[in-house]
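Entry:
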Amino acid sequence: MAQMDGARQPQAVVFDFGGVLFNWQPAKLIQSVLPHLASNDQQALDLAARVFESFVPGSDWSEFDRGALSWDEVRDKIAHRTGLSGRDVHCLMEAIPPHLAPIPGTVDWLHRLSASGMPLYFLSNMPRPYAEFLQREHAFLDRFLAGVFSCDVQQIKPNADIFETAAARFGIQPEQTVFIDDNPHNIKTARALGWRAVQFVNAAQCQSELAELGWL
């Protein structure tokens, strides 16, 4: 069965955003915005873990992603929980849109896939302010036929329900769809639900792995 699946071209490709199509390096972000609190790599990693709590469902930032917390609410919760000042948390949040710069290799690949006629979709954990920013600033997102942001459906990866919502909205069959994400927990859920999931490290690695599998 694996060989049969590998030989069959997918009907669609679904991309994650942060860490795949757009830069997302929380520790580096913290070092650039709060150098007085993170003067070295380890301090930055530790502070990122405290602020973002590994993005596990139910955490403050995950609830912001899900649309369940407003900007002010998540700022205040993070400040209270971590001991950071509200101003520092606000500055960190304000710095995220410019940090989410397009990753050239993935954008080039996206254009090639689109030109080949491959249907493209996205599935992203993203709070509304950043989702609106990305859609406003990046015309290449019109290459996607449709997409699901966590904030719009009040669901969150790696939970199964958001994958089911995406498949229904896109009108796709998971077993005939390639899913690309940098988060291993999201990959695990996708595979359990039958998606052809590949963990993204960089565009060259991902394309090579997909070619070896015979999926693209």
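The longest helix spans residues 41-52.
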